[in-house]
Amino acid sequence: MKATEVPAIDGAFLFEPTPYADERGFFCRTFDADVFRSVGLDPDAFVQDSVSRSVGGVLRGLHLRSGAGEAKLVRCSYGRIFDVVVDLRPHSPTYRGRAFFELSDETQAALYIPAGCAHGFQALTETADVSYRIDRPHDPAEDVTIAFDDPELAVPWPLPVTSMSQRDREAPSLAQVLKHMES
Question: Membrane-spanning regions, if any (predicted)?
Fold first, then answer.
């Protein structure tokens, strides 16, 4: 497994495993504590695992948590997604940096997203399963959502949006979220 820093997001890493494929299918190690430690991350920090299933064109995000934030390890275990990370940590050297990835079941790559970064994705295939590991128990009272189509972020979503939650549809702009977080 190879760990690569994400230049646009300080503290973010892309973990790329080496799947072994043969006529039966494939085998792949998707998490390795030693590789995490080698880049300065604590593999024991994760406290919850979750999975979402989306149909093609579904958009989820952009989400983050207030307070101490939430670090995530995200992987598309089935299908393909367009994944987006936005650095919203005011003291980060990559503040407001954006990074885009295609995560898929073919590569099984996982993306580590530091606390304080917004995250969202769009399903590119008929079905896309996304696995999450997070470093704090989820508290819905800390959920923050930013408009997926905020012009300041100008995220190049690859497909027309077929569906999204009401919360995501009604999300405020980045400027409104930042103003609220500062107060």
Answer: none
Q: Distance from first CA to last CA of the chain, Å, rounded?
A: 42
CB neighbours of 22 closer than 8 A, spacing ≥ 6?
none
Cα–Cα separations (whole angstroms), residue 104 to 16, 108, 147, 169: 11, 6, 25, 25
What three-state secondary structure class fits 179? helix
Facing residues of 15 across strands? 3, 110
Catalytic residue among 20, 63, 119, 180: 63
Provide the Cα torsion 157, 121, 13, 89; round to 10°.
Answer: 90
Give catalytic status of residue 95 as yes or no.
no
Distance of CA 61 to the CA centre of its chain: 9
For residue 109, what pLDDT band results from cuts at 50, 70 and 90?
very high
Residue 47 has a CB neighbour count (10 Å cut-off) of 11
Closest residue by Cα to residue 89 from 65, 120, 121: 65
Closest CA to 169 of 112, 104, 109, 120: 120
Q: Any residues with CB less than 8 A from the CB of 117 and at least 6 apart, and which?
A: 9, 12, 64, 69, 85, 86, 87, 88, 89
Indicate if 138 belongs to the active site.
no
Catalytic residue, candidates 78, 132, 138, 180: 132
- Supply the pTM of this predicted model: 0.94
